[in-house]
């Protein structure tokens, strides 16, 4: 079984069958599918990448990314895919703490409507504890991280104060990170 099959099986185990999929191609020829899952969280959609696990040459590890949103169901998959291509082109590890803050350039309407201009990768929240580790066979495991949309002030706070301070603030404010219309923490 290859990594893509392992991730797809993992998604089905935790989220059932996808209700849709969109394919995206990057400027460098890389491809990714963004699968859509409904009913995992109330009044939200889970978008899950499939294909990033094949990019170990540029990101250095086997991973995929999930993103849970309550709105922008047509826009979020393309934004997620474009951010994944951005990370790959810059050889950025897709791990907790990784940030891209150019969503305003990718989708000015999205940034204006929701006040979110950055995408942040963090540990998976609200999923079962074993969701973020994917068995690939033998002693090999892949990982899953969660993408969360942030406001410009939130991204700035994260850059200036670090992951721990940002996530402590997020948890302390009892903010629902999947709510795109939520006010900025800062």
Brief rundown of the structure:
The protein has helices spanning 3-15, 56-59, 76-89, 103-106, 108-114, 152-172; strands at 20-25, 31-38, 45-50, 63-69, 99-100, 118-122, 133-137, 140-150.
Please state roughly what percent of the residues sit in beta strands, choosing from under 5%, 5-15%, 15-25%, 25-35%, 35-45% or over 45%.
25-35%
Helicity range of the residues?
Answer: 25-40%
Query: Could you tell me how far the N terminus lies from the C terminus, measured between alpha carbons in angstroms?
Result: 45 Å
What structural class do the secondary elements suggest?
alpha+beta
Form type? globular
Number of helices: 6
Largest sheet: 8 strands, mixed
Number of strands: 8
- Give the domain tally: 1
Oligomer: single chain
Topology readout:
Layout: H1 3-15, E1 20-25, E2 31-38, E3 45-50, H2 56-59, E4 63-69, H3 76-89, E5 99-100, H4 103-106, H5 108-114, E6 118-122, E7 133-137, E8 140-150, H6 152-172
Parallel strand pairs: 4-8
Antiparallel strand pairs: 1-2, 2-3, 3-4, 5-6, 6-8, 7-8
What does this structure look like?
The chain is of the alpha+beta class and 186 residues long. The chain has one domain. 34% of the residues lie in helices and 27% in strands. It has six helices and eight strands; from the N terminus they run H-E-E-E-H-E-H-E-H-H-E-E-E-H.
Core attributes:
eight-stranded mixed beta sheet, alpha+beta, 34% helix, 8 strands, globular, 186 residues
């Amino acid at each position: 079984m290859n990594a893509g099959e392992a991730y797809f099986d993992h998604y089905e185990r935790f989220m059932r069958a996808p209700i849709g999929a969109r394919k995206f191609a990057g400027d460098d020829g890389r491809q990714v599918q963004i699968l859509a899952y409904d009913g995992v969280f109330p009044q939200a959609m889970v978008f899950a990448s499939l294909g990033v696990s094949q990019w170990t040459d540029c990101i250095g590890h086997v991973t995929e990314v999930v993103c849970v949103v309550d709105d922008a169901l047509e826009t979020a998959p393309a934004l997620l895919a474009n951010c994944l291509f951005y990370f790959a082109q810059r050889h950025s590890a897709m791990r907790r703490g990784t940030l891209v803050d150019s969503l305003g350039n990718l989708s000015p309407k999205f940034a204006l409507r929701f006040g979110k201009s950055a995408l942040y990768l963090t540990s998976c929240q609200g999923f079962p504890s074993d969701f973020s580790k994917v068995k690939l066979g033998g002693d090999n495991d892949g990982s899953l991280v969660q993408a969360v949309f942030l406001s410009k002030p939130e991204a700035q706070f994260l850059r200036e104060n670090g992951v721990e301070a940002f996530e402590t603030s997020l948890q302390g404010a009892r903010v629902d990170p999947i709510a795109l219309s939520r006010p900025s923490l800062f």
